[in-house]
Amino acid sequence: MIYKYSFGLFSLGEDIITRRDVDDEKKQLEISQETTWYHEGPESLRISRLWIAEYSLPRAKARLEEARLMRDLPNAARTAKRQEIQKKIQNLAIHSSQIGDTRPISSCMFSPNSQLLATGSWTGLCKVWSIPNCELKQTLKGHNSNVGAIIFHPKATISQEENVCNMVSCAFDGSVKLWDFKSEEPIADIEGHMPYRVSKMGFHPSGRFLGTCCYDCSWRLWDLHQCTEVLHQEGHGKPVHCISFQIDGSVCATGSLDAFGRVWDLRTGRCIMFMEGHLKGIMGIDFALNGYQLATSSEDNTCKIWDLRKRSAVYTIPAHTNLVSDIKYQKEGDFLVTASFDTTVKLWTNRTWQPLKTLSGHDGKVMCADMSPDNQFIVSASYDRTFKLWTAEDKCDNL
After folding, report:
1. What are the TM regions of this chain, as residue ranges (predicted)?
2. Number of other residues whose CB lies within 10 A of the CB of residue 261
3. What values do phi and psi take at 95, rounded to 5?
4. Residues 292, 307: contact at Cβ < 8 Å?
5. Dihedral (C-alpha) 288, 155, 110, 248: value to the nearest 10 degrees?
6. Which residues contact 377 (CB under 8 A, 6 or more apart)?
7. Backbone angles phi, psi at 309, to 5 degrees
8. 107 within 8 A of 120, measured Cβ to Cβ
9. Spatial separation of the C-alpha atoms in residues 109 and 101, rounded to whole Å
């Protein structure tokens, strides 16, 4: 009996040692999970990050100097400008309505010179239209599935030749295509996303880099000069749906269907701001011209205004009665435009975020909206297969 009892104690001691080993392993695992791990990247990434740093620093300095000059303007002058803008917004009305395709129009964007409009459709076709006549100038054939977005290069129609990459489009099958103004066929493809959907894209303000949002829960940064993917960034728990680059070019922001947004420092790769507050997925994201304000739109029917300096949300706009599909700042940042599945487009002041105007006219969900750089037009594209141009009735020079 004594022998058996001793053996029992010996077995119990082994169990305690084993349990301690397991606990130690768990502690080590927890410590490793809390540690940020860095892996050596390719030489192309180092080249890109150095170039972005050199590009963004003087732009940030110039932006801050301009902000100081604006701060010194008399309050009366700033108030008069806001009142003039709001008065002209009240006069907004439909300028023209155009059937864009046989299926929903999923994307629309003005060219940098405001004289062209690019639209993408669920037919897989992209089209380029003249503004304000809405005459079809070019049909881009290449996608075999729903187009997610088509965007203009920042220097297209301004300083670039017509036979280089002036537009980029993406589709649900993961295809990304580059286009010029001369051909109906793509001049190049960007491969690496298939079979995952590419929902939205954004150009770095320099035009050298392209950011793509992929439904494999990552976003990619492509260096068009080096013709390679320099960054494959993970961090979101669900598909990444939208992206926006800050005007300096130093950071970008991404929004995901996990309801969270993140701001990334392109020079280091760090996530410098985590945006938590939406109840459902983020559908649209855009930086203001001032460089520190950021707006997001969501499936929860709201929009949020974020301050990069405070790293927090500063205001929530109960914007629509349905999903808010898109959000854009006016070029000067005086107001916001939102598009929603409730069939309306709305404009909001950027000072108090109060409603300025509701644009009604679509028969279906409004998929996206944009403002022309010259402030003459607003465009909205819809599930009803049309896009509409809106402008002030008095044909004023600026909104």
Report:
1. none
2. 27
3. -90, -45
4. yes
5. -10
6. 95, 110, 114, 131, 132, 371, 389, 390, 391
7. -70, -40
8. yes
9. 16
CATH architecture of 95-210+376-381: 7 Propeller (2.130)
Query: Each residue of 366-396: pLDDT tens digit?
Result: 999 999 999 999 999 999 999 999 998 765 4
345: Cβ–Cβ under 8 A, 6 or more apart, which residues?
337, 338, 339, 358, 359, 366, 369, 378, 380, 390
Give the whole-angstrom CA distance, residue 241 versus residue 230: 20
Paired tokens of 241:
């749906």
Residue 51 CA from chain centroid, whole number: 22
pLDDT digits (tens, 9 = 90+) for 310-369: 999 999 999 999 999 999 999 887 899 999 999 999 999 988 999 999 999 999 999 999
Longest dimension (CA), the chain: 105
142 in Cβ contact with 185 (< 8 Å): yes
Q: Which two tokens stand for residue 328?
A: 């854009």
Q: Are 217 and 237 in contact (CB under 8 A)?
A: yes
Instruction: Delimit the CATH 2.130.10.10 region(s) of the chain.
Output: 95-210+376-381, 235-360
Q: Which CATH class is domain 235-360?
A: mainly beta
Confidence check: pLDDT of 32 > 70: no
Give DSSP secondary structure letters for 200-216.
EEEE-TTSSEEEEEETT
Prediction pTM value: 0.88
Q: What gap in Å lies between CA 274 and CA 271, rounded to an integer?
A: 7
- What's at 183, amino acid-wise? S
User: Which residues make Cβ contacts (< 8 Å) with residue 388, sequence separation at least 6?
Assistant: 94, 95, 96, 97, 98, 361, 362, 379, 380, 382
Closest CA to 367 of 149, 184, 46, 216: 149
